[in-house]
Amino acid sequence: MRSRSERLFPILLITPALAVVVFLVIFPLLWALGLSFYKYNVLRGGKPLFVGLGNYVRLLSSSFIWERFVTTAEFVVSAVLLEFILGFGLALLFYQEFKGRRIAITLTTMPLLVAPIAAGIFFRYIYDATFGIFTYLAYLLTGAKINMTKDYPMLAVVLLDAWQWTPFMMLFILAGLEAVPKYLLESAEVDRLSWLDKFRVVIWPTIRPLVMLALLFRTMDAFRTFDTVFALTEGGPGTQTELISLTIYRIGFKYFRTGEACALAFIVLVIVILLTNLYLRMAKKVTV
Known about the structure:
Blueprint: H1 4-35, E1 38-39, E2 49-50, H2 54-60, H3 63-95, H4 101-108, H5 116-126, H6 133-142, H7 148-151, H8 153-178, H9 182-190, H10 195-223, H11 227-232, H12 244-254, H13 258-287
Antiparallel strand pairs: 1-2
Helix pairs in contact: 3-8, 3-10, 8-10, 10-13, 12-13
């Protein structure tokens, strides 16, 4: 039987990390939750006015907020789907052995190292209507001058997100492909299975858990995208690319309605948690 000091020693070791989590995560979260029940403006100051669920009711009854959720859903579905398709294609390509494969994989993953805000500024120059390389290439192919951030703003944002996060999807799928047992592939060759049957029977059951995990991570991350969109379009033109994260920013830091911003942030948190649980249940059914 262990002594009391031996039992307390592991707790003592995790205490500093636990204190950091409480101070930097749990305390701000509870503070924001408390503020969401108050009407409070940072600029005006004064005593916060308790409104109960008033902020939540006001936000959920606003057509503008629901439009932002629709815009966010459009962005998330488009970006994640495109990243999955491109990532799958790249993973299949790099699964083959060829000269310079490791260098090619390294170069392909470079966008992951770029800060999102820097990527947004970088693509703003690429899409520039006057001297942007994308505009120039589009003119050579179509003969028309295309201003991506004005004419196709959502497509511009989705392409930027795909450029940066397709390598993330590729790495997950490639890891799954390389985990497929060689003897199963050899057995499929002996049985003379077609490539499609080999993929369906041997490859997909092995890589499916990693694919599901990658889709979950990217969906959650895309839902809270802020930096790239803010740097590229600032939610414009108009509100065509204003995701819900930008709306929270505007309410909290432009209009200084702190209570409403906190309430909207918690609404988003609840939606993400519900979607995650729904996804996990669906993934469990598919796996079973």
